Amino acid sequence: MPVPRSPAFRGRARERQALDGLLDRVRGGESAVLVIRGEAGIGKTALMHYCARQASGCQLAQIHGVESEMELPLAALHQLCTPMLSSLDALPEPQQRVLRVAFGLTSEPAPDRFVLGLAVLTLLAENAAARPLICLIDDAQWLDEASSQVLGFVGRRLLAEPVGLLLAVREAAGEALFPGLQALPLEGLTDEDARALLTAAIPGHLDNRVCDRIVAETGGNPLGLLELARGMSEAELGGGFAGPPKASLPGHLQGRLQDHYLRRVQVLPGPARQLMLLAAADPTGDAALLWRAAQKLGLGPDAAAAADAEQLLDIGSQVRFRHPLVRSAAYAAGSPEDRRAAHLTLATATDAQADPERRVWHLAAAATGPDEDVAAALEQAAAKIQARAGLAASAAFLQRSVMLTAEPGRHTERALAAALAHLHAGAFDIALALLARAEAHAVDDLQRARVEMLRGQVEWASVTGREAPVLLMQAAKRLETLDAELARETYLHAWVASHLAGPLAGPGGLLLEVSRAVQAAPQPAGAPRPGDLLLDGLTTMIIQGRAAAEPTLRRAVSAFLGDQVSGEEWLQWGIFAQMAAMAVWDFDSWMALSARHVEFARALGALAPLSIALNGRGSVATHCGDFETATSLAAEKDVVNEVTGIRLATTCDLLLAGYRGRPAEAVPLFTATMEDSTARGEGLAVQMANWAAAVLRNGLGRYAEALAVAEPAAEETYSPLSTQLVLPELIEAAARTGRADLAREALGQLSAMTTGSDWAKGLEARSRALVSEGREAEQCYAEAVERLGRTPLRPDLARAHLLYGEWLRRENRRLDARHQLHAAYDLLGAIGADAFAERARRELLATGEKVRKREVDTYSQLTSQEEHIVRLARDGRSNREIAAELFISTRTVEWHFRKVFAKLGITSRRDLHNALPP
User: Fold this and answer.
1) Count of other CB atoms within 10 angstroms of residue 605
2) Exposed/middle/buried for 398, CB within 10 Å: 0-12, 13-18, 19+?
3) Per-residue pLDDT for 1 more than 50?
4) Angstrom distance (rounded) from CA 906 to CA 150
């Protein structure tokens, strides 16, 4: 007999109306996403059933989360998507491949999480092409993390597909799940509806005072109303005539409900209890697997009939419990020995060839104590599952292997490996707990030093603040006599952590202190590795200056550009190689390195390094004046940060806001960055926010304000790598406010940092011109224009034209000034540097030139997403290629085009070339 549907939606007119609206939108060809949030028993599942019944004319895909499966990566996604794989051939080949890898149909490197999200989005859209698709996901708080991330990604990108996504999340467990998606919060029934529900459910007399007490105690929770009333005698219901309350009733509602279900399970016959325990221990809901396991224990249909008669369990094509709390109660009702026996039975019933990871997972749950064979199997499974589902999955298997390892040395090695995996996966608290375990079992000083090293890396990755340099320095010093190579790697992490912390670093963590410690440490034996070259070059730059460091830094850059490093080394050291290129002012190498870094991070599916790589690439694009690409990269970086929980300030966003010249947008970003970064101890972000604010104010012609933010950002306690970017802003602001002495002092600092590249010498010449007069000033301006003209640095070139033109106008050479100012105005307008462009326009007007203020044309009405799409289309990309690049579906691209054509007054792609600015 099927489990009856709950009457919990009684009185839920508002909620049913919301679900009806969702279904209507999907039937009308639109997307709709809704997250139902509420406590256990509040009626989420009842509303899901209502939606399923009302979804006439639609396809249904229904799954539910299972608590014991939370650590099995992509398990929920596999349940949802497997019935749809008949449409797999309609997907682009890269998306087909990533789904096959994710679901274990082929063996290849771990899929990029973004491409996986896009593949799922496209798969849903393809399945909905013939008939609208409704996806119902109950108990979404118990989905595995990887599936939750992908479904959240999909939910935020569903737009023009006839797909409905309805998720139910238990409130207490799921507050942080699926941010940004529309929510439908559920509260208890009104007193009137609660009384009506009780009256309808109880056949005999119900005393009004007892009824009011039940309603008050349950807060109108529908399941609580019914289950607590079910546990009361007729005498108690009729007049409150009962003994003292049972000891199990106090506590929150969820606990009382679970206690109620626990009592109902405990009074079942032994075979029925045993079958329910088996079902609760298997998270897949696979009825065939359950019956195979049941047969091994001699359990037959009679056991299932007893559980079914009590309306607790229904076994059809799938295994369904009346409520998730029934599953929890069934598992809790078994003794530890019974649970282990159930997992062992399920392990023997699981196909070792078809599902080896799940089999070893059950074996681990069945272990009575340390078991080296199972621990080793978990360790091997971790390597295999990383290729399919990424680092988080691998980390979960490694963590289980630690718990089953007895030998202290091996226990520590596995704990260190698991901690590193959790660190890269962004699970910092778990990583720290594993490091505490590793420290307790460490057998030698090397293992203890590696614990310290990883603690420092966790601090750096999670906070990037004042303590990370100090912790990493301590670990590096301890490693010097134990493992010189590891010590140097740790010192490199300490150097970068100190660079990020700046003057906010804790005692002993300043950049000069770290650099001196590195030079005093043992040098590497044999030929230096690329990491050694980076470490030596960066520390030499701090102690002896650029000229002494330049040869070593260039060797390091060449090593990374010459394919002398692995993909893993790229993830670990790629951003440091970009720092080396910046240090020698080699912009072309910086461009190449940033592109390669993004490429490797994508290929390996490493999201935390990808965030850093995208920021570097976005900074390069901003320096080139390609604000469109920079905006796109920043948006992608924000998606990565949303998925991983990274909360670091990024240079790309700050500089882009400064150059766009829109104070209403930029100033709140700068203020928030300053406050948050100061609290975290992230000094570099404070400096970069001041730098970007100086760019903004120089563009607006507010030179005193620019000087006020640029001067503190050029203090010596900051890394020279970042200070070299601030000094040109300080020099311009100081020169324009009559502070020639300060401008010359800053110019001396900048000159000491520059190399012979056109980027360095161009900025130096432009800055020198500001403190020079007559012929010398003109020669410097001309040199700046010539040198910067040979680089991709369009904003700096445009600003050289602007400053040159301003100087010529003040020299009363109006015709010459107009030539430079027109070049500046056209270039600044084309790249979108609004404040600098307006400054150039005002200067042109002062020469007597008639210049119209740039009008807001039809093109500017496009959103940033629409602008990006039409530019890609103009460049020859197909809808499918655009969808893949922007992580949206093809139907969403088509939907955007319909809006774009209406805004631009065109009818086809062919008209885009004439409708768009160059």
Assistant:
1) 22
2) buried
3) no
4) 36
Q: What is residue 111's three-state secondary structure?
A: coil
Q: What are the φ and ψ backbone dihedral angles of 134, each rounded to 5 degrees?
A: -115, 120
pLDDT category of residue 72 using cuts at 50, 70 and 90:
confident
- Alpha-carbon gap, residue 571 to 574, rounded angstroms: 6
Cα dihedral 462/468/471/476 (nearest 10) = 100
Select the more confidently predicted residue: 426 or 43.
43
3-class SS at 64? strand
For the cut 90, the answer to whether the pLDDT of residue 118 exceeds it is: no
Q: What is the CA radius of gyration of the chain?
A: 32
Task: Measure Cα distances from 602 to 608, 614, 636 in Å.
Answer: 11, 10, 12
Q: What are phi and psi of 62, to 5 degrees?
A: -125, 130
Residues 859-871: pLDDT tens digits?
456 666 677 787 7
Sequence-ordered list of residues with C-beta below 8 angstroms from that of 413, at least 6 positions apart, any chain? 447
Tell me the per-residue pLDDT of 834-884, one tens digit each, with 9 for 90 and over: 999 999 999 999 998 887 665 544 445 666 667 778 777 877 788 877 776
Question: How far apart (Å, rounded) are the C-alpha atoms in residues 722 and 86?
Answer: 53
Question: What angle, 0 to 180 degrees and rounded to 10, lies between the N-to-C axes of helices 530-544 and 567-583?
Answer: 20
State residue 97's pLDDT score.
86
Angstrom distance (rounded) from CA 130 to CA 280: 37
Q: List phi, psi (to 5°) of 864.
A: -60, -35
What distances in angstroms separate CA 337 from CA 103, 290, 340, 481, 674, one per listed residue?
Answer: 33, 19, 5, 48, 56
Measured CA to CA, the distance from residue 738 to residue 749 in angstroms comes to 19
Please list the alpha-helical segments (H only) found in 350-443.
356-366, 372-389, 391-403, 408-425, 428-441
> Interior CA angle at 901 toward 896 and 903, to 5°?
95
The tokens describing 590, both together, are 């910086």
Residues 697, 705 contacting (CB under 8 angstroms): yes
Question: Cα separation of 486 and 490, whole Å?
Answer: 6
Interhelix angle for 651-660 vs 834-846, to 10°?
30
The answer to whether residues 837 and 825 touch, using CB atoms and an 8 Å cutoff, is yes
Which helix (H) or strand (E) covers residue 59, if one does? strand 59-64
At residue 248 the predicted structure's pLDDT band, cuts being 50, 70 and 90, is: very low
Whole-number average pLDDT of the chain: 85
Among all chains, which residue has been given the structure tokens 């998270």? 283
Q: 411 is written with which tokens? A: 């226990």
CA distance 889 to 121: 6
pLDDT of residue 856: 44
8 A C-beta contact, residue 303 and residue 312: no
The overall pTM is greater than 0.85 = no
pLDDT of residue 566: 80
To 5 degrees, how large is the angle CA 777–CA 783–CA 784?
90
Q: For residues 466 and 481, is the Cβ–Cβ distance under 8 A?
A: no
Question: Cα-flanking dihedrals φ and ψ of residue 870, to 5°?
Answer: -70, -30
How many CA atoms are closer than 13 Å to the CA of 38, on its beta-carbon side?
27
What is the C-alpha separation between 103 and 87, in angstroms, rounded? 15
Residue 153 banded pLDDT, cuts 50, 70, 90: confident
Cα separation, 736 vs 593, in Å, equals: 36
Please state whether beta strands 32-38 and 163-170 pair in parallel, antiparallel, or not at all (unpaired): parallel
Three-class secondary structure of residue 135 per DSSP: strand
- Token duo for residue 523: 């040098």
pLDDT at residue 721, as a whole number: 85
407 near 419, Cβ under 8 Å? no
